[in-house]
């Protein structure tokens, strides 16, 4: 049986590499084009030696060319920086190719908010209306009918999955939420920078972008949809001296006197009824706190909940793998849905522990 041909723009980056890892084992999708401006002409096995002798090793890297991609592929993943992805997406959509964009270019519905937080004017405002926010548990049906999916940011994935049941059941006040997130260094991408040098990251821990991180409006937008009101969020990201993983701790003001058991049950039921059949959000038993290694290399989002009636706060600890659930695995789940395949096809189940 012929597999469905797909392409990847940005194979030389971390999310591109992660997509290759996943697609190497996908039963129904065939990666037929991989592009990089700097690595064009080499084989995938040469630039990603860990994929040597897989079915993808002989694939030749090309320079990005939307005409060629459109001729060869039904769907293309864009794993390139924001600002770059929007023109490629517009061109591919014009050529009837479906697009999963891993960048932030189509996540914000309001182009002015995009300009303000990304310091860039949006050049394809008319496409914002057709872009679907690619969080499968919340938008599974819309993703299945979409031609353009805006894959969520890594921090927002960890935060929105943690808050969705509480907002849906009005357990917390959406105007009083504090988010404290920590990410591994792959979150910053593979492009060299002083801030991610080994000696700057190892044996160290620091906060960054306080009050101005560009994932803030993305979370505010989706919390607004879930709660039906405009909100402003306090969000502080930190850089951890690890490769993969995000751990977000969320403090939300309780509006309910529900017991811990009741809140755990509401969370479990919410995700049991999600439109996507895969069960990726796992609620830990009370007293067990999620760790980044529990989800490494997978689509899981593990949640630990504490109903603290003393301080009237719901405390949530949420962990994801930023490269898999926070980027490439989620992009693959979205592509599966767009192409009528099972959402979890080709996605690994067992985490890499230790
Ligand atoms: N890292 C993460 O955890 C997450 C990343 N994302 C988003 O995914 C996208 C990719 O991220 P990541 O893989 O980390 O980034 P990297 O910096 O690791 O890689 C970027 C890739 O894009 C290519 N590229 C850069 N500029 C251009 C251009 N002008 N035209 C075509 N290709 C270009 C680069 O290859 P070359 O220069 O050879 O062409 C490279 O393959 C970004 O938008 C990022 O914000 C989203 C969620 C999580
Ligand atoms: C550790 C680290 O630097 N993380 C990145 C987030 C990566 C990501 O998801 O960003 P996009 O919105 O660009 O897709 C950051 O804070 O900018």
TrEMBL record:
Cellular localisation: Cytoplasm
Species whose genome carries this gene: Desulfonatronum thiosulfatophilum
GO BP, one annotated term: L-arginine biosynthetic process
Function of the molecule: Catalyzes the NADPH-dependent reduction of N-acetyl-5-glutamyl phosphate to yield N-acetyl-L-glutamate 5-semialdehyde.
Family listed: Belongs to the NAGSA dehydrogenase family. Type 1 subfamily.
Predominant localisation class: cytoplasm
UniProt KW keywords: Amino-acid biosynthesis, Arginine biosynthesis, Cytoplasm, NADP, Oxidoreductase
Tagged with keyword Chaperone: no
Pfam families hit by this protein: Semialdhyde_dh, Semialdhyde_dhC_1
One GO MF term attached to the UniProt entry: N-acetyl-gamma-glutamyl-phosphate reductase activity
Gene that this sequence comes from: argC
Gene3D superfamilies recorded: Dihydrodipicolinate Reductase, domain 2, NAD(P)-binding Rossmann-like Domain
Source taxon at top rank: Bacteria
Cellular component GO terms held in the UniProt record: cytoplasm
Pathway: Amino-acid biosynthesis; L-arginine biosynthesis; N(2)-acetyl-L-ornithine from L-glutamate: step 3/4
Enzyme active site: 154
Catalytic activity: N-acetyl-L-glutamate 5-semialdehyde + phosphate + NADP(+) = N-acetyl-L-glutamyl 5-phosphate + NADPH + H(+)
Protein name: N-acetyl-gamma-glutamyl-phosphate reductase
Enzyme nomenclature, EC number: 1.2.1.38
């Amino acid at each position: 049986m012929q597999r469905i041909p797909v392409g990847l723009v940005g194979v030389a980056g971390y999310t591109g590499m992660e997509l290759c890892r996943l697609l190497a084992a996908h039963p129904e999708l065939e990666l037929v084009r991989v592009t990089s401006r700097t690595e064009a002409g080499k084989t995938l096995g040469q630039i990603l030696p860990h994929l040597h002798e897989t079915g993808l090793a002989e694939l030749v890297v090309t320079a990005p060319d939307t005409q060629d991609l459109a001729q060869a592929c039904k769907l293309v993943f864009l794993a390139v920086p924001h600002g770059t992805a929007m023109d490629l997406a517009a061109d591919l959509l014009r050529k009837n190719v479906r697009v999963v964009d891993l960048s932030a270019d189509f996540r914000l519905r309001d182009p002015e908010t995009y300009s303000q937080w990304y310091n860039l004017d949006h050049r394809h405002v008319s496409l914002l209306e057709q872009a679907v926010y690619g969080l499968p548990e919340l938008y599974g049906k819309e993703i299945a009918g979409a031609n353009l999916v805006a894959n969520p940011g890594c921090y927002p994935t960890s935060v929105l999955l943690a808050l969705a049941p509480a907002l849906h059941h009005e357990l917390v006040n959406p105007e009083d939420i504090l988010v404290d997130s920590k990410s591994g260094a792959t979150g910053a991408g593979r492009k060299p920078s002083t801030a991610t040098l080994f000696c700057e990251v190892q044996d160290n821990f620091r906060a960054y972008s306080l009050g101005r991180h560009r994932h803030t409006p993305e979370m505010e937008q989706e919390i607004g949809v879930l709660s039906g009101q405009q909100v402003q969020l306090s969000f502080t990201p930190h850089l951890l001296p690890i490769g993969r993983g995000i751990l977000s701790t969320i403090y939300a003001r309780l509006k309910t006197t529900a017991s811990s058991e009741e809140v755990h049950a509401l969370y479990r039921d919410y995700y049991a009824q999600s439109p996507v059949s895969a069960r990726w959000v796992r609620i830990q038993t009370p007293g067990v706190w999620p760790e980044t290694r529990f989800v490494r290399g997978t689509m899981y989002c593990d949640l630990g909940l504490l109903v603290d009636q003393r301080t009237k706060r719901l405390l949530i600890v949420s962990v994801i793998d930023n490269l898999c659930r926070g980027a490439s695995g989620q992009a693959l789940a979205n592509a599966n849905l767009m192409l009528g395949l099972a959402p979890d096809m080709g996605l690994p189940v067992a985490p890499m522990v230790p």
